[in-house]
Structures are given as structure tokens and as C-alpha cells.
Amino acid sequence: MTESIALDPVDLTILRLLQNDARMTYRDLAAETGVAPSTCLDRVTRLRRSGVILGHRLALDPARLGRHIEALLSVQVRPHRRDLIGEFVERIRALPESRALFHLTGPDDYLVHVAVADTADLQRLVVDEFTSRREVARVETRLIFQQWECGPLLPPASREQPAAARDTGPAGRGPVRAGVVRRGADSGGN
Question: How far is 1 from 116, CA to CA, in rounded Å?
Fold first, then answer.
């Protein structure tokens, strides 16, 4: 079941600003959005309670932690049964090298983002933690040369919304559109 949450331009501006700097004060949010700090506090609280804001994360540089190589591992699991994949998912999530795990459609069942010290460490991880598992049929490794963070996540603009109804955000920071965020009942958070 998907729950819809209506967002106005102020909500969307708050979400954009907090995604760029989650430590932004309510006073600074108020200055950027043109509403009172208490209004910003109320709106952020509502966005948290409704599940739009899931939490706060600390970003770390893997290379500065001695993990100089990042890779994407495409993993095929056979047979693809719930009793096997549940155990597989928990094991992979528990590995200190794992950064993200995605369950996919298509020929590969999982995509795992990992960070390791060097190529020998990557080989050890693939052989000892992946291909040695009975349910893993195939692993394909792709090294990541470079990655970029992308812009803030906002709801898609309504195709029916006229151009005149679109607003530009405070301080000329780009377009802000009212929208609806859909949140599934099974969505998790941190």
C-alpha cells in the first residue's frame, strides 16, 4: 500500500536544502525558505513523521579508511528461493566491505557495491565470501574508477502542471515544484 504525502514548494525547498547539508540550522532553513524557524521545525518534524525524511547519514571517504578500490559485483543466485536469499542478503549486508546491496530484475539477482583495500582483497572477498556460497551461481566484477553524487531527490514534476505554476527556489537555487511523495508500507529507514 502506498501512502501519498502532499508537498508544497516550501517543503520541497527544505528537502533540497537538507539533502545538501543535513546539519543546516532551522534559522538558516528559515532564511532560505522565507518562513519562520518554528515553521521550519514543524515542517521537518512532519516530514520525519510521515516517512519522507528517513534519517541522517555520515558520509565517509573509503580511500581515507584504507579502502582504495571500489567495485560493483553482479551476483546470480541459484536457485532463487526465499530461504536461500534471506540468508544471503543478511550475510552480504554484514560484510564490512559491503556499501550497498540491490535486488534486481534481469539476468543478475543482486548488485553489491563494495570497498576493499586492493585487488588482492577484492579477489579474497569474491572467492571467500561470494563464490564459495552454495547459492551463488556467478559473480561478475566491475571496478569503479570514479563516482559522483547526484542532485537532491525530489518528487517528479507533474506533467499536467502549467509552467506558470512552477516556482524558482529561494536565492536562485533552481526550480521548486509542488508534488507528492509516495511511500510504500514496506519502506525502511535509518
Answer: 38
